[in-house]
Amino acid sequence: MLAILWLTFVGVWGGVLWLLWGQLPSTLQMPLKAEPEKPIPGYLMARMEPSFAKAWVDGKPWSWRAGGISLLPGNYRLEVRAIGHHPHTRQVRVHAEDATLVRVVLDPFPVPVSITSLPSGAQVFLNGRLQGKTPLHLQLKPRAYHLRLTKDPLGAVEQDILVVARPKKPQAWSFPLGGARKRAVDGGERRWVSKGVFSRGLSEKAMQKVYDLCSLFRKDCRKEWWSAEQPERLIEMSGFWIDHLEVSRDRYAVCVKAGRCTPLRFVRKDPNLPAFGVSWQQAKTYCRYAGGRLPTEAEWEYAARGKDGRLFVWGKAWKKAWANHGIFLAGRKTTGPWEGDGALFAAKVGSFPHDRSVFGVRDLVGNVAEWVADCYHASFFRVAAEKDPSHEPEKCEMRVIRGGDWASAPWDLRVTARKPALPQLQSLSVGFRCVEASSSQAPAP
Question: DSSP assignment of 60-99, as one string?
Answer without folding.
Answer: EEE-GGG--EEE-SEEEEEEEE-TTB--EEEEEEE-TT-E
